[in-house]
Amino acid sequence: MKKIIECVPNFSEGNDLNVIRQITAEVEKIDGVKLLDVDPGKATNRTVVTFVGEPEPVIEAAFQAIKKASELIDMSKHTGEHPRMGATDVCPLIPVSGISMEETAEYAHKLGKRVGEELNLPIYMYEKAQPNKERSNLSIIRAGEYEGFFKKIKEPKWTPDYGPAEFSVRAGGTVIGARDFLIAYNINLNTTSTRLANSVAFDVREAGRVKREGNPITGKVVNDENGNPVRIPGKLKECKAIGWFIEEYGIAQISMNLTNHKVTPVHMAFDAVNESAQSRGLRVTGSELVGLIPLGALLEAGKHYLKMQNRSLGVSEEELIHIAVKSLGLDELAPFDPNKKIIEYQLRNMEDERLVSMTAKKLAFETASESPAPGGGSVSAYVGALGVALGTMVANLSANKRGWEDQAQRFGDAAASGQSILDSLLKAVDEDTRAFSRIMDAFALPKGNEAETQARTQAIEDATVYACEVPFHVMKTAHAALDLIEDMVANGNQNSITDGAVGSLCIQTAVEGAHLNVKINASGLKDKTRVNQLLEDANKLMSDTQNRVQAIRSKVNEVIGL
User: Beta strand 88-97 with 174-178: parallel, antiparallel or unpaired?
Assistant: First the structure.
């Protein structure tokens, strides 16, 4: 899985669109970064920009945007309703997929250090990137704002984390950090009553409601010994919520911010609101996402509702998303387009899936064309994918077999495992073609002088190593599917035993075909120690595959009895 982070810098300009465009143009210049949203506010005189990508390109884009803002925005002339302390007021990094919060915080520090040193601006780290909890809260750091920071920065406890202990008259200072992804999520109710919607919101939000004597709405507020109101906490952690009426839709909603979707995922929030609504005579009719959502959050929702239906989880990514959308009612108010609402899909390069997105007929014609790619490597990966797909099918049939309900979980888990292997092999279909292209690109490099010749030689070696690694990965991945197929042939739905056997033959073809690619590519490597080890490992995989597939065929022939 690619490492994907989101960056949401807030710039202290919300009126001059020319300035805003110049800042966002710096983001769009960086390859591997996608600008998702630009949201200027006139009253706040502030613009929130959202972009995503892999970590290194994202922090490069953030640096260039911060630099441009420091050149264009004069904080000595800035006014606006929103608290602020600099031209780039705050710049959070948010882990989206394939990366931990700790790693994201490291990238925040890398960005903060560079901004402090190269742009000579005072930088404060916040949230998960700030080990000092006394200064990790944004509002505490920003207290005093731009006007008060010329004095505040001289206090020993407010020495910047990076950059000079001098406040910039023109650009001010910047707060950089790492925080959790926030999902803005609204749940629809079959009522127009804001009061009832708020009652539900108070039931579920972490802050809950103020405790009252007698009547929970009009009763006297109960205070503690210090005179502060006693609160009854709500059901959901990391959840902020309020009820409101949306005139456009003619319904009330629970408007939520899920500040850590790993603690409170969208499906948990939906179910909690549904339970509270029903207890008050209301009904949840659907929901909507405001902005984007990580792919993993929707996949987990799909799995959650499949489990509730006692169904196998061994289904495709597309099916999991479909189940999530229908279960959460995400398409009630407007069509739900995964390509526009899922962060990873916004970043997806369709060229990366050119082959696997074709119809079976078109892929066959593409393979038959005069182009050398796709070739045997891609076909081996695809045949392996078909093989594990057959094993997964048997697992799903077994999980749903009447009278086998006590084994539904066990077969469902097997199907989910098969689906994971299937996904990996499908990715390898296009990856093998890219590996071939890398070799061709390396051979096309210039070789005029000694430096160019050395660079070309190294590029060819690196590309060849990768061209060995891809088919070897296919061998290992396809071989791993034999556990599933052996289990299904021995213990699965016996009406489909020959499907499992055909799957094993596909796996053998995938392993043997990929083995040929490993050998021919390894022959071009200069590092013979690496070649020998690679071939030894590949030979073992092929031999084991052949023996196990033969055993599967013998088992199936025995059962058939012909």
Answer: parallel
**Residue located via tokens 């982070």:** 5
- In three-state secondary structure terms, 494 is helix
Alpha carbon dihedral 84, 87, 90, 91, in 10-degree steps, equals: 170
Residue 503, CA distances (Å) to 275, 393, 400 in order: 45, 10, 20
Cα dist. 260→239, 273, 408 in Å? 8, 17, 32
> What's the count of helices (H) and strands (E) in the chain, helices before strands?
17, 13
Mean pLDDT of 370-387: 92
Other CB atoms within 10 Å distance of the CB of residue 254: 28
Q: What is the DSSP letter of 333?
A: S
Establish how many alpha carbons lie within 13 A of residue 89's alpha carbon, considering only the half-sphere containing its beta carbon: 25
E strand residue ranges, 265-341: 284-290
Sheet with 239-246: strands ordered across: 239-246, 251-258, 183-189, 284-290
Report which of 365, 278, 299 is spatially closest to residue 97, judged by C-alpha positions: 299
Residue-wise pLDDT tens digits, 55-73: 999 999 999 999 999 999 9
pLDDT greater than 90 at residue 205: yes
The answer to whether 248 and 221 have CB atoms below 8 angstroms apart is: no
Diameter of the chain by CA atoms? 92
CA angle 464, 467, 468 (to 5 degrees): 95
Q: Active-site residues: which are they?
A: 82, 432
**Mean of all residue pLDDT scores within the chain:** 91
Q: How far apart are CA 239 and CA 263, in angstroms?
A: 9
Burial class (CB in 10 A: 0-12, 13-18, 19+), 1: exposed
Who's near 505: CB < 8 A, 6+ residues apart?
A: 387, 549, 553
3-state secondary structure 127-176: ECCCCCHHHCCHHHHHCCHHHHHHHHCCCHHHCCCECCCCCECCCECEEE
Could you tell me the domains of the chain? 4-178 (3.30.990.10), 183-347 (3.30.70.670), 350-560 (1.20.120.680)
Q: How far apart are the first and last CA of the chain?
A: 46
Overall pTM > 0.90: no
Cα gap 458→167, rounded to integer Å: 48
